[in-house]
């Protein structure tokens, strides 16, 4: 497995390298110290996952993430000193799979990457099913509504797949968070649900498929339903 770290702080890079050496020695760690060089390596080195800082010397990590999402759904974990809610929401909105604040616990970083890797390669995923006008393509990032393609991020696809497979049953936020991230992550759920509604609903403010109990959980209804809730 190859993991690319895009980080301009040499000390942070060394800590990450030591973490992998001690906890996951089979991983080959690739390094880039700027946004532009990182983008080039994403295309040429073909990493399996990316660790990305926001405060880079040339272009911001947000812009790097935005450009990556134009051509790739590789797992991206943000590793940054910024801990404001607005920063977390922005990163998730651009398609980040996870967000970790410095100073970080080394084994936690490895655990999060392993969790993402397990989800992406889970043998439990069976995409051969239809849910109303929806069906998946060859992965959870490729959704079709009435045979029209809709591009999802990895996290969006995993959340939607889980809710679709639970068709008609409310799933609590805590259950969704544990299934996707292995920890409580209400804000991440809320952001991704909003993006999913924007992509799959005819009227995101009055959803017919992706329904919620405010503050508690969500349900996917395969057929149109008049019982939609508008809040998230």
Automatic annotation (TrEMBL):
* Keywords associated with the record: DNA-binding, Phosphoprotein, Two-component regulatory system
Query: What is the top-level taxon of the source organism?
Result: Bacteria
- InterPro entries linked to this entry: CheY-like_superfamily (IPR011006), OmpR/PhoB-type_DNA-bd (IPR001867), Sig_transdc_resp-reg_receiver (IPR001789), WalR-like (IPR039420), WH-like_DNA-bd_sf (IPR036388)
Q: Which residue ranges carry the DNA-binding annotation? A: 126-222
Query: What does the entry list under GO cellular component?
Result: cytosol; protein-DNA complex
Q: Which residue range or ranges hold the OmpR/PhoB-type domain? A: 126-222
Report any one BP term from Gene Ontology: regulation of DNA-templated transcription
Give residue numbers for the modification (4-aspartylphosphate): 53
| Residues annotated as domain Response regulatory | 2-117
- One function term, GO molecular function aspect: phosphorelay response regulator activity
- This chain belongs to which protein, by name? DNA-binding response regulator
